Amino acid sequence: MTNKKKIIFLASYPKSGNTWLRSIISSLIYNQGNFHFDDLQKIILFSQIANFNNLKNPSFDSKGNLDFNWLSNNWINAQKNINLKKKEVVFFKTHSVRGIINNNFFTDESVCLAFIYIIRDPRDVVVSLSNHMGENIPDSLNKVLFEKNRMTSFQKVNELISTWKNNIDSWMEFKKVPRLILKYEDMINDVDKGISTIVNFLNTVTSLDIKTDNKFLESVKDSTSFNNLQSLENKYKFKEATINTKFFRKGVVGEWRQVLTQKQVKQIEEELTIPMKQLAYL
Superfamily assignment of 7-121+148-242 in CATH? Predict the structure, then answer.
């Protein structure tokens, strides 16, 4: 691969299908259409200390995490180093906003080859996040709608997630590199089309030359089906699960109808009217 840029981000707001997307792509690329949890370790979270180890004068906060000001000043530097080091395309998961922090973007066209962003109905995100975090619906609803400064931390690196709307907007505004925008619901409703769309995109922006024969794609679909992912989690456990619930809990579309109150639904729909209409959720 001669392109100096190697990084493809798999981006999303949390609980929107990112791990399923990683499963599909790892199955397409790394294991001949047969998925196993170990394959996910080949598509890791960008925001962890290993990706910043070679940068000079790191600064840490009181919790032992990389200082966020230092971190934001070095997002691009870290990605430049990765591009220099890697010979082939490399995928990274992220839940980070791409917005400007200290005059720095999380990524930009100088270092990012392409990205795939997966979007999920915010009403279902609230329900899924509540179960994942082991918290009540109002707390998760507040995160999704209002916590603009919300961060998570992994391996000494903080990641600014912000709100559902801010996260989506920040990536939708990034139009200077090839991108693929997916909806979780579309993937669920027609997984064959979804997988083919991913394959066509990756074959266009990389030299991976992913196979397109029906037998191979059927194997990818079957091995990354929700039923199979649940079965694998029951058998082998899953490192990314929490103590509160299984990671692959339901994965259904429209669960919010049975869980959220009318008042909660109204609040979400009023706060997010414009993006939800743009994305055909309303």
Answer: P-loop containing nucleotide triphosphate hydrolases (3.40.50.300)
